[in-house]
Amino acid sequence: MNQRTTTNFFDTKIEFLKGVGPQRAVTLNKELNIFTFGDLIQYYPFRHEDRSRFHRINELTEELTAVQLKGRIRSMVVVGEGYKRRLTVEFTDGTGVVEFVYFQSIDWHLKHFKEGGEYIAYGKPQRYGQRFNFSHPEIETINPENENGGYFQPVYNLTETLRKKHLDSRFLSKVMRTLLEQATPHFKETLPEELVRKFRLFSKTDAMWNIHLPESEAALNQALRRLKFEELFYNQLRLIKNKILHKTEYPGQIFTNLDLVKKFYTEGSMPFELTNAQKRVLREIHDDLKTGKHMNRLLQGDVGSGKTIVAFIAMLMAIGNGAQTCIMAPTEILADQHYRGLKGFAEALGLKIALLTGSTTKKGRKLIFPDLAEGNIHIIVGTHALLEDPVQFKNLGLCIIDEQHRFGVAQRAKLWAKNPTIPPHILVMTATPIPRTLAMTLYGDLDVSIIDELPAGRKPIKTVHRYDQHRLNVFSFLRDEIKKGRQVYMVYPLIEESEKLDYKDLMDGYESVSRAFPEYHVSIVHGKMLAYEKDDEMQRFVRGETQIMVATTVIEVGVNVPNASVMVIESAERFGLSQLHQLRGRVGRGAEQSYCVLMTGVKLSKDTRLRIETLCQTNNGFEIADVDLKLRGPGDLAGTQQSGLLDLLIADLAKDGEILKAARAAAESILNEDPTFILPKNEPIRSHIDSLHKESTNWSRIS
Ligand code: ADP
Ligand code: MG
């Protein structure tokens, strides 16, 4: 260990840096997890303040985020009492006058600044009547370092403790300069020269200097581009390498015989013509299944795009070659629906299908388990109950996982273990379209198939936004639709923190709907009901005995009632974009024109308006996912937490799609040519990966 600390400059402990020392080192350890020179130098600023120029007061606009001014204090006055006590400073540069306001450190300011003195100030202008006003701008005396402007001040993420101890952005940028000077001879280029040249990237050294202390805005952007590229390149290299490893290390059962699939096509039980997208995806799946390589595939398709039939036909590919299959859904309602939907198809082909969920009785289980173990059951549909130990197959060949973002490692292992000889092929289906950039990182180690076409004859859902006070108009529209024989969903939010309130909203809603539509029957489904109660209600609605379904988001995923053509979403402002899109997907499944009504209060934030407008404008899940990514950032999108995606230090998947694409293509082409990086030109990759490995086993930070 010791040897490494002395041989690798970047492993040197931070206390040995001039300007830091042991005490500050402890604070940096605790607050920012910075232990070594390497940690510090990779603590990138999240933005820079442009101090390269001075604005003139007469060119200020409200759009400017922050400006630097150079001028004179004309007056300083303390006004107000108690918590209203504040210092107001009139500041002029000859082109106009602005006002600075300080509520804090008033006495400090009075002591350090004088009327008539010349200063430099930095802050955000806000229009206040005729004048611009600055709240708590930074102000400093003019000195040779700042008098001409000319630098970009890095801004680092800080904690309260750091601020209190004056370990602020200024401090960090000062020690960073010292560190960069010492580190420069130690920087090693981590990218092959070929890539640096091809993409016109900054060298590692230039990038490191300019990310912290940029010479110009252009240099800063180049530094960012270089470091993002590097990060995404190594991220993709790892994922694609895993994918290749997976393919070479794990065999899969070989399913070549398509007789059963043909029988399904020809013997008339196939209810419709497949869309071209469905056919293409089935070809992609069959290409996997016939090769002997293990399939690990993600099937993305918007709600209603027809993933179920694709799953069924994939299962036929396996069953026709003597294997068993399972399909796992996240809820009982969904499992049940799959079972009901597939039963007819399966039985027409002479196949045995079973359902296993948490509510399957002991007696029911006793019937299923032996049949499954002996291979008499061809398809088993279920929930997580399928993962339990007594569920044993004779020869499980294919697992379909429906509507789940990404199942965890432990669950995956359990599924694999269901066939001890040779792991079952895996097809994960999701109706949450993921923007391509995100899919590349999140699912970069899976193969991805996309159904990007809806079955013919579907009318696009019409989506409108209505305010709560126009509820009566909405109700009369619902009445018209129900008269035509349609059914209606009314969905209420259910968010855990305010479960009680939500429940009350739901019940109030149910009562007012029942009162408003005395001539119709109203169903209600929510999370507090027992499984069989929910199921009964759901079935009443499916059979058309009730016309209106009042529900919480339990109906969100997968439920299919083609005659339901109107979806009213209450408090739509409380739902996320992709969740609204999912909910809307419950309608538009039949031949009739379908509608989605988004109900909200009048007061909406800018983001909420954008969400609602996006939904009114498009039905395309991928477009919606892109907006969602931009609004929320990748960290909040479903499934990202467990993927290590958040380890990205500098790249931003919402913005860096182009860089990601280039980095991925570069990683692919290098892996194709030189999978183990033995060519001399790929030496930088080899040694960088080595150093990353060392870093992850570096124990020095524990002492
Ligand atoms: P999802 O992709 O959301 O799971 P489903 O598989 O539930 O979609 O399919 C939605 C509806 O579309 C179902 O009623 C299904 O029978 C129907 N469907 C699927 N594929 C086609 C097709 N090629 N032509 C016509 N209808 C189809
Ligand atoms: Mg589905």
TrEMBL record:
State the protein's purpose: Plays a critical role in recombination and DNA repair. Helps process Holliday junction intermediates to mature products by catalyzing branch migration. Has replication fork regression activity, unwinds stalled or blocked replication forks to make a HJ that can be resolved. Has a DNA unwinding activity characteristic of a DNA helicase with 3'-5' polarity.
GO MF annotations, alphabetized:
3'-5' DNA helicase activity; ATP binding; ATP hydrolysis activity; DNA binding
Record bears the keyword Chloroplast: no
Q: Which family does it belong to?
A: Belongs to the helicase family. RecG subfamily.
Q: Which residues form the Helicase C-terminal domain?
A: 477-635
Q: Which SUPFAM superfamilies match?
A: Nucleic acid-binding proteins (SSF50249), P-loop containing nucleoside triphosphate hydrolases (SSF52540)
| Keyword terms, alphabetized | ATP-binding, DNA damage, DNA recombination, DNA repair, DNA-binding, Helicase, Hydrolase, Isomerase, Nucleotide-binding
Q: InterPro entries recorded for this chain?
A: ATP-dep_DNA_helicase_RecG, DEAD/DEAH_box_helicase_dom, Helicase_ATP-bd, Helicase_C-like, NA-bd_OB-fold, P-loop_NTPase, RecG/Mfd, RecG_dom3_C
Q: What is the species listed in this Swiss-Prot or TrEMBL entry? A: Runella rosea
Q: What lineage does the source organism belong to?
A: Bacteria, Pseudomonadati, Bacteroidota, Cytophagia, Cytophagales
Entry-linked CDD domains = DEXHc_RecG (cd17992), RecG_wedge_OBF (cd04488)
The Gene Ontology biological process terms listed for this entry are: DNA recombination; DNA repair
Enzyme Commission number(s) from the entry = 5.6.2.4
Protein name (database record): ATP-dependent DNA helicase RecG
Per its UniProt entry, which superkingdom is the organism in? Bacteria
- Name the chemical reaction catalysed here: ATP + H2O = ADP + phosphate + H(+); Couples ATP hydrolysis with the unwinding of duplex DNA by translocating in the 3'-5' direction
Pfam name, any one: Helicase_C
Domain Helicase ATP-binding per the UniProt entry, residue ranges: 288-451
